[in-house]
Amino acid sequence: MKRLFLSILISLSALAAFGQEKDDSVNQRYFDAKIKEFVYRLDLSDQQKALFIPIYERYSNEMRANVGERRRPKTKPETAEEAAAIAKAKIERQQKAQDIRLKYVDEFAKVLNPDQLGRLYDVENQIQRKLMSRKGTHGKDGGHRPGHRPTRAPKGPRTSDKK
Q1: Do 42 and 113 contact (CB within 8 A), yes or no?
Q2: Burial code of 94-124, b = ≥16 C-beta within 10 A, e = fewer?
Q3: Assigned domain for 46 exists
Q4: Mean pLDDT value across residues 126-139
Q5: How far apart are CA 154 and CA 6, in angstroms?
Q6: What is the DSSP string of 68-103?
Q7: Mean pLDDT, residues 41-51
Q8: Structural domain of residue 98, as residue ranges?
Q9: What angle do CA 77, 81, 85 make, to 5 degrees?
Q10: At what angle are helices 114-135 and 2-42 packed, to 10 degrees?
Q11: Can you give the pLDDT at residue 30?
Q12: CA neighbor of 52 nearest in space, from 37, 74, 69, 30
């Protein structure tokens, strides 16, 4: 019995370690892709890139440690108190994220020019939205939140219709 328990425990430990390695690998690939996108979208020089990466890595780690990932409640709140607690937790997470962003503005300003700095957080938000749409985290309704209409494509001739 002890051997069976020990072998199950070892198996679970190995699975947990494998899962952690997989998560680390995915996180590293995601981070690398974000850096590549920043380099392209902000038009960073090689020197700026070399200085930007360690700052952004510290920033990302701090965001992940203090804010974590956005999580929707598994069930709808049934009382006003539950809804208020969820709303407060969301606002507190947003406040922590804003505090971290403010903390790093001066560090990014040492590396980026004014135009790049002005676009930094917009680009980050666009990357995040792109990732969420690829993950399909907007919901099962085609990426639209309940009560919100999807935006329509602009009217007019498509570029493929032009001769």
Answers
A1: no
A2: eeebeebeeebeebbeebbeeebbebbeebb
A3: yes
A4: 74
A5: 63
A6: ------SS---SHHHHHHHHHHHHHHHHHHHHHHHH
A7: 95
A8: 2-69+80-135
A9: 80
A10: 140
A11: 86
A12: 37
CA distances 130 to 28, 81, 99, Å, are 17, 33, 24
pTM: 0.64
Q: Is residue 154 part of a domain?
A: no
What is the reported pLDDT for 35?
Answer: 93
Other CB atoms within 10 A of residue 54 CB:
11
Give the position of tokens 């135009």. 115
Is 32 among the domain residues? yes
**Contact assessment for residue 106 and residue 55, using Cβ atoms and an 8 Å cutoff:** no
Residue 68, number of CB atoms within 10 A of its CB: 11
Helices 46-66, 80-109: axis angle to 10 degrees equals: 160
What residues have CB less than 8 Å from 137, skipping those under 6 apart?
A: none
Asked if the structure places residue 142 within a domain, the reply is: no
Q: Are 138 and 132 in contact (CB under 8 A)?
A: yes
Structure tokens at 13: 């430990």
Q: How many domains does the chain have?
A: 1
Measured distance CA(41)–CA(152) in Å, rounded: 26
